[in-house]
Amino acid sequence: MAEFSWDVRSPLDRALLAGPYGAHGDAGVTLTEIRNFDLVQVMARRGKAVDMATVAKTRFGVAAPETPKAVHTADATLIWSGPDQFFILAKNGKHAMDWLVPTFAASGSLSEQSHARALISISGAKARAMLAKLSSIDLHPGAFAVGAAAATSMDHTSVTLWRGNDRDGQAVLNVLVFATFAESLWHTMLDSAAEYGVAIAHSEELT
Amino acid sequence: MKYSIFSLARAALSGHKNWQRTWRDATPKDRYDVVIIGGGGHGLATAWFLASEYGIRNVAVLEKGWIGSGNAGRNTTIIRSNYGLPGNTGFYELSMKLWERMEQDLNYNAMVSQRGVINLYHSDAQRDAYARRGNTMRINGIDAELLDLAAVKKMMPFLNFDNARFPVQGGLLQRRGGTARHDAVVWGYAHAASGLGVDIIQNCEVTGFVRDANGKVTGVETSRGRIGAGKVGMAVAGSSSRVADMAGLRLPIESHVLQAFVSEAIKPLIPNVMTFGAGHFYVSQSDKGGLVFGGDIDGYNSYAQRGNLPVMEDVCEGGMALMPMIGRVRLLRQWGGIMDMSMDGSPIIDKTPVDGLYLNAGWCYGGFKATPGSGFVFAHLLARDTPHEEAARFRLDRFRTGAMIDEKGQGAQPNLH
Amino acid sequence: MAVAQTNRLGNGGLIDRSAPLSFRFDGKSFSGFQGDTLASALVANGVKLVGRSFKYHRPRGILTAGSEEPNALVELRSGSRREPNTKATTAELYEGLEAASQNRWPSLRFDVMSVNQLFAPIFVAGFYYKTFMWPAKFWEAIYEPAIRRAAGLGRAAGVADPDHYDKAWAHCDVLVAGSGPAGLAAALAAGRSGARVILCEEDFAFGGRLLSDGGTIDGLPAAEWLLRTLAELAAMPDVRIMNRTTLFGVYDGGTYGALERVNDHLPSPPEHQVRQRLWRIVAKRCVVAAGALERPIVFAGNDTPGVMMASAMRTYVGRYAAAPAKRIALFTNNEDGWRTVETALGAGLQIAAVIDARPDISSAHRSLASKNGFTVLHGAVSGVDGGKDGVRKIAVSLTGGARAEVEADGLAVSGGWNPAVGLTSYHRGRPKWRDDIAAFVPDGAPPGMVAAGAANGDFGLGACLSQGFAAGAAAAHDAGHGGKAGTAPVADDEAFSVTPLWHVAGKGKAFVDYQHDVTASDIELAQREGFESVEHLKRYTTLGMATDQGKTSNVAGLAIMAAVSGRSIPETGTTIYRPPYVPVAIGAFAGHHRDETFHATRLTPSHHWAAEQGAVFVDTGLWKRAQWYPRAGEKDWLESVTREVKAVRSGVGFCDVSTLGKIDVHGPDAGAFLDRVYINTFSNLAVGKARYGLMLREDGIVYDDGTTSRLAEDHYFLTTTTAKAGLVMQHLEFCRQVLFPELDVQLTSVSDQWAQFSIAGPKTRDLLKEIVDPTEDLSNEGFPFMGAREVALRGGIKARLFRISFSGEMAFEISVPARYGEAMARNLMLAGKSFGVTPYGTEALGVMRIEKGHIAGPELSGTTTAADLGLDKMMSTKKDFIGRVMAGREALVAPDRQVVVGIKPTDKARRLRSGAHIIPKGQTPGPGNDQGYVTSVCFSPASDQWIGLALVERGRERIGEIVHAHDPIRGEDYDVELCNPVFYDPDGGRQRG
Amino acid sequence: MRIVCPFCGERELGEFTYLGDAKPVRPAADAGEDAVYDYVYLRDNIAGVMSENWYHGGGCRAWLKVTRNTLTHEISAVEPAAGAGAAKVGA
C-alpha cells in the first residue's frame, strides 16, 4: 500500500520568491504571505443576529464586528465580511470548524474557507502608495484607522482588506484574496510595488 | 442643385456664393399624410423611401433639435450585415444593399467605405460560434469568410500575437462591411427627401398625441403647434419610451448610455473595422485619421448622454490588449449616446396597439448600420400597413409569444445585450 | 554642431542656463536649457516654421505657449516611442530630444502637398460630400485611400509601446485644478482649514501666469510669493501638489480623471517606473482654477509663422528668455494685450506698432508709445505679408478707412480671453455669455465644482487671489473642515476692457480653426447651406474637431456664425464640451491591463502539478485549465485526447474540475429556496444524496445546470458550470435578498475552498480503495450512484466524495481542501499507478460528455429551453420556480423548435465541425430550409468515428433521417444521420455499476 | 458614479452590478402569464428619479435599492434589499 503524503502548498508557494525585488535600496514595501491559517465564515441565520453576537462574545470575549472592522482577540481576528457575517481568522485549529459548528449551531451558518484564501500582509513606507494602484479605498490614516476593514475589490478581484496593528510605527494592511486568484494578484502587487523596492517574505505567524 | 465635381468647380468660380440650402427650412403645414417623429437617420430615411419608393410625398419629419442630433450623430459609423439569426440576417443584408447604392440614390457622398469588418476569435468555442454565424450569412447570400491565424496575421500584422492574455486565433470577416460618414448620411437623406417635397422641421418637439374619439392618433402636438397626420411614425431611438408614454404605451425597452471615443488624427494605421473577441473593444479609423472606437454599454439606465470611467478604462484595456501599438496614441474625445436597449437585443418595427401610431425602436447599439434598411421597411409598413417581409419578425408582440431574436442569448436583461 | 541660440535673451527667464541641453528638430541639431519646452527652445533658436496644416499644408509656426496649441505639433521621439501630434509647447526639453515636423513630404520647407493650396477654391468645407461619387467602385479603390493618406497628422509608431503605465486612486476633500494665483490661493485656504487637498498642475512648474506675468502679491514680487506659498503648502501633511498632472475629466459622484506625466520629461522612464499614471481622484469639492485662454482674431494671413498670441509672446520672453521676434507688432482689442508690449520693451525688444481695435486707449499707453517711439494705429490687421519664413509686413485697415503698413517680424495678437470652461461643462452644463468680457463663463457646473479666478471670467490678479481663496475656504468648509483659513493674499487688479472683434474682412484666407484649416468663408458657406446649428457647423466644417478641440477657435467660429445668421452669440450657443480636456494616451487608460496582464488569471489547485506533467492549457474564462497531457511521440492533440479517453473508458483517469462554481447553501429554508431556483425539486433530496438540477432564467430559457448535494438537513452544496459560477452566485443572492427575503437561507461561495477531481473509469473504485480509509464502504450498496458524503483519506485528511458521472463511466468526484490539491493529484497518480491511471484534460472531458449526450456550453446558448435540451420532464408541475410561466409561451413550446439530437456522418471517415448548418437532404440551402446547426463535435473513440450534437428542427422526431451538414464557410458539405444523442452506454449501466 | 453602500460606505461604480428597475414585483405563482410578461418585459424606463436594483458584488454582496436620477446620475438614496442584512429581522 502506497504512502500518501499530504503536504500543503499555499496558493503562492510557487510565485513567492523571498528576498528583494524591484528598485534597489531600502524596500519601500514589504510583502509577507501568511501561510496555513484557519478561516471560517459565519453568517447569521434569520432572526439570530443577536444570538450569534452573543455566542461570539462568549467564545471570543469581544463582540463580533457589525460594521466593517477587524477585531483582535488573544488568538483570533474577527473580520467583518458583509452584513450579518464575519470571518474568524486563527491558527493551529483553535477555532477550526469542528469546534465552531456546535458553538454556532443555532445561530449561524458556517463555511470552511481556510483553503479558499491567501493572506498577504503589506507594510512599509510606500505601502499606501502601492495599494493606491490596486484599491479604490481611501487608506489615509484618518480614513482607514487601525481595525478598519473593507470588503472590496482589487484588480477586479474580491478581497477582504483590513488594517492590523501598526508595526514599527508603520501601518500594516492585510489582504485576503481568493486562492485561485492569488498568484495573479501577487504579480500585480509586485508590478505595482517594484518602483519602490520590495522585500518579500512568508510567515506562519498571524500579525 | 446636382452635386458633382463640375458643379463644385463652377461654384468655385463664383466664390461658392450660389450654393442652396442642403435641405429646405420648412415651416409646418396643418396636416401631412405621414408625420415622422425624429429627424435622425432612420426618420429621414423613412421619409425619403416614403417619397421615392411609395409615392407618399406629403410627409413631415419633426426634429426636436437639429437633424442628426441623436444617435445618428454619435455613433461609431460601422456598417455590416453579419448577423446570425433569422429576422436579423435578411434585414441587415437588405440594409447593406441599400448602403451600396445610397450615394447614387441620394446624390450625396456619405463616404460608404466597404473596407471590411472582422470579428476576431480567441477560442475554439468562439470560432465555432462564428462559423455558425458565417454559415448563416452564406446561406442567406451574404459574404463571409472564416480566417485562420495566418490570414489574420497577414491582414493585421500589428495585433498582439506574441504575449497576449487571450491570443487571437482567427476571425470572421465580412469584406462588404465597413463604415460610412454618419453625419453625411443624415444630410444626404435630408437633401434628397427635401428635394422630393418632404418637409424637414427642426426645433420642433412633439409634446403629445392628438387622438380621435376611437383613440386613433390623428396628429401631434408640438412646440410649433398642432400638426395633423394620417399616420404617425416614431423613429426616436433613445427616447422611445418617453414618446410612447405620451400615447400611454409601455415598451420592452430600457435606455442605456453607450460611450464612444475618438483619438487624435494620425496617418493610416488600421485598414478595416475590427472587434476584439476577448474584451470590449472595436475600432476603425476615420478618413480624417482618428481611431474611432468603443466597447460595452455602461450598464445602467441613463438619459444623460455621458458615461463614466470604468467603461472608458475597460475599452482602452481591450484596445491595448489587442494592439499595444496604440499606447501612445491619444484619446481626444469621449461622448455618450442613449441606446434603446430592447429585451432581446433586436429592434422593433411594428404597428402599436394605438391605431395610427407606428413604432421603429429598440435598436440597441446597432442602429446606424440599419439606417437605410430601417427607413425602407418602416416606409413600407407606413405605406402598406403590413410589415415588409424582411422585417416581419421585428414584432412588438414577440416578447409575449416567446419569439425573441436573441443573438447574444442573454434574455430579458437589456444591459447584457 | 548645434546652432547658437540666436534668439535667446541675454538674461532673465526661468531657464537653468547652467544646464544646456542639445536636441534635434527635423534632423538638425540645436541647443536649449533645462526649463525650456521644445517650443521655447525652437523660439530661442529662431525657428519659426514648425508644421504644416491639415488640409492645405500651409506653413505654420507656434501660436501659443500652452496645451491649447493648434499648430506646433510634432512627432516626438523615434522608433517604438514615436508620439505623433505632440505639442511642442508642452513638451519639456531633455538631453537628446528628437522631434520631427509632420504632415509634410519630403520636407517641412518643401512640402509637395502644399499643392493643395492651388485647389483651395474647390476644397471648401464639405466639398467631399458633393463629389467622389462616380463611379461607385472608385471610392474604396482610389478616392478614399488618397484622402486617408493626405489626411491624418503625425504617424503612430506602428509597433507595441515599450513603456508601462499604471493607474491609481487618490482621495481628498478639495481638489484644485491649476496652480496659478487662484489655484494656489484655493489650496492655501483649504489646506489651512484642515482639508485634505490635491492640487493638479499640468505644467512642470507651478505658478501659472505668475511665471510669465509677474506682479506683486502681499507686497512681495510674485516669484517670491510663489516660493513662500509652495513651501507653506509642502509643509502641510494633507496637501499634495502634483505637477505634470492634468485634470482632464469629471465623472459622477465626485470622481475626477487626471493624467500624471511621470517621466515624459526624460528620454525614457527609469527602470521599474511608468511613463504616465492615470489618477482617479475622489474629491468632495473641486475648485477649477484652470485659467483662461487668449483667443485669436480672424484676419487674412493670421496663420503666417510669426503671428502669435500676445500672452504666449510674453511667456516666451518673460518665462523662457526667448524672443519670438526682434521687431514686434501687437494687434489687440483689449487692455491685456498691451502687457506684451511692456514685457517686450523690458526685454529690450523693439515694438513696431500697436494696432488697437478699440476706439480709445489710455493715456498711459499713449505715453508708453511716444516714449518708446512706436505708433498706435486704431484699426485692424487686414493682411500679413510673409510665407514660411514668417511675418514681414502687416497691412492695417485704419478706423475711418485708410490703410497703413507695418514692418515687423512678429505679430502678437490678443482677441480677449476665454475662461477655460471645459471641466465645468462636462456634465452638459452650458456656459453662459458675459457681455462685459465678451466671453462664455462657467454655468451649470457638476455638483461640488466651482470655478474661480480667470476660469470664472475674473481676470485681475487681485480677483484671482481673493476668489480662489474664498472658493478654497468654502470648499473646505463644505467638506467638513472649519479650521481658520487666515487672510487671503492681496494684489491689485489690472484694468481689463475689451471691444469684441472676431473677424476682420479682407482678401486672403482668414483662419478660424488653424489646425483643420477652417476659414471664415467656410463658416459663411456652411450657413448658406443650412448648417446653422453650431453642431451642424462643427460637423460640416470640422471646426473645433482637431487635437485642440477648438480651444482657440470655437468661440470665434460661433461668433462669425452668429454674425452671418443674424443671431446673437448666446443665441447661437456652444457645442457640447466633452472630456478629456487635453488628449490622453490610450496606454494610460489601460494601465497595466495589457499583454498577459490584460485580465487576471485563475489557477486550479493542481495547476503547477499539471504544468510539470507537460499539460497544454486552455483559457476558460479567466481560468487556465489543462486541455490535454501530451506524451512523447504523440503526433497531435487528437492522438493525446483519444488516448486519454480510452484510458478512462478502459481503466481509470482523473481530471481537475475545481473550476466548477461551488456554493454552500445553508439554513432551514435551503431546500425550499432551491425548489424555487431549480425547475426540479430539492427539498425532498435525502441527506447524503446528490441530484442534477437545471435553472431557468425568468424568461423561461435555460440558465445553468449542475449537481447539488445535501450534506446535512440544513446544508446543501451546489455546483454551477465553470462559465456561470459568478453569475449564478449573483442570481442566487438576488433570489435570496430581493425575491424571497422571507426564506431563512445563507449563501457562501466555496469555489476556492475545494480542490475537486473527477475520477472516472471502471477501475475508479479500485483506485479509491487505495487512498480512502479502509473503513469507508465504497460498494454499490454502501455508496450508491448519486451518493454524497464525507470520507476519511489515508494519511488523516478528510474529503468529500460524490458519486456522480459526467463521463458515463463508474465515477466519483472527490473534494479536498485546496491546499491539498496538488498533493491530491500526486496521490491519485500514486494510488492509481498499478491501474494505469491517466490524468485527462478538458478535451477528453468534452469527448466523453458528447459521447454521453450531456449538454454543455454550446447547448446552453441562452436561447434553448429545457424541452429543447430534452430535459422538460424535470420541470416540476407541483411548485412555482423561476422561469416557469414564461417557459410556457407559444413560441417556446412550438413543435418545430430546434432540439438536441445526435449526429454522425454517413461516411465514417468524415470529420465533423461545429457550426455547420443542417439542411434537408437534396435541397438547395437557403433561409427557408436552414433547420439548425451543429453545436458540439468530437472524435469518439468508442464509436471510432466523429460524432456530434446538433440543434435541429423537430430533431427528435427525425432520428434516423439523413440530412445535409452544410458548412460553406469552410467549404464542406456532407451527409449526416440524425441519431440518439446518447452514443455511449445509453442504458447507463456503466455509471451505476 | 459612487454608491454609498449602507453596509460598506461609499464605493466606486466598478464594485457594483446593475440589474434594472426595482419597481416591478415578481407576481405570485397564480398571477398568470400576462402579469409575468409585464414583470419580465415591460419597463417604465423613467427619465428622472428611478428606484433600481444594484448588487455590491465587488464588496459585501448585498443587493441594494438605489434611488437614482437617470438624467443626471445623481443618487439620492440607497437602502438594502429586503433580505440584505436581515438577520436581525424575525424569522
Automatic annotation (TrEMBL), chain B:
Location in the cell: Cytoplasm
Catalytic reactions of this protein: sarcosine + (6S)-5,6,7,8-tetrahydrofolate + O2 = (6R)-5,10-methylene-5,6,7,8-tetrahydrofolate + glycine + H2O2; sarcosine + O2 + H2O = formaldehyde + glycine + H2O2
Domain of life of the organism encoding this protein: Bacteria
EC number(s) reported in the record: 1.5.3.24
Location (main, coarse): cytoplasm
The Rhodanese domain, residue ranges: 34-78
Keywords carried by this UniProt record: Cytoplasm, FAD, Flavoprotein, FMN, Nucleotide-binding, Oxidoreductase
SUPFAM superfamilies registered for this protein in UniProt: FAD-linked reductases, C-terminal domain (SSF54373), FAD/NAD(P)-binding domain (SSF51905)
Cofactor: FMN; FAD
InterPro entries, alphabetized: FAD-dep_OxRdtase, FAD/NAD-bd_sf, Rhodanese-like_dom, SoxB
Annotated Pfam families: DAO
EC top class named in words: oxidoreductase
Family: Belongs to the SoxB family.
Protein name per Swiss-Prot or TrEMBL: Sarcosine oxidase subunit beta
Organism: Mesorhizobium huakuii
Automatic annotation (TrEMBL), chain D:
Highest rank taxon of the organism: Bacteria
Gene3D superfamilies recorded: Folate-binding superfamily (3.30.2270.10)
Protein name per UniProt: Sarcosine oxidase subunit delta
Organism taxonomic ancestry: Bacteria, Pseudomonadati, Pseudomonadota, Alphaproteobacteria, Hyphomicrobiales
